[in-house]
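Please review this one.

:::
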Amino acid sequence: MNFLKIKLLVIAIVMFAASSAFAALSYDVTIDTSFLNNTNGYLYFQYGGLNAVDSTATLHAFTGGTLAAANSTAVVDGTAVSGTLPGTVVFANTNGTNDYNHGITFGSNLKFSLAFAAPAFGGTSGGSSTFSLGLFQDETGQTSLLNGTLFTIDLNNDGTAAAQVLSNEATVTPTPIPAAAWLLGSGLMGLVGIRRRKEKQ
């Protein structure tokens, strides 16, 4: 295998790793709340694990509706959750349930991004952590504004992630690979081409 082929192989590996890291473990979420416009309610986020490796789910880039001044303390266990909306909220899966509850006056939609991370994958086969969102009329989560959970995203012990949409109002898509990753790959390809032309001269 000549040097050029080795370079191209390395570039392909880098691009594959970038696409896996950025696309598979990061998701963009949109919730259509137009039918709830100007309605008061609560966002109930939860991240919990079952035989799962230690991991975090980071909620960021939240937009939509008018949030209450502070998040609610009406949760099962919020000790492993830090931050508050509309800023970044980080969920660890160290407890059986890890909850975040925030009052809101709904607008036409909600949008946010989720990024999952773990220091190491492996552990019990079939173990995973699950992130979910429910919308409720009351602070204690007794009356749902929709039929239960809107979506789930599982972070599996083998390092893969999978989303399941449970409501027509929810859209969950892998985050597109950042332009920087594509630029890195195309830049490396360009450098290989320049070097090859110089070697021919």
Observations:
- The helical segments are 3-24, 179-200.
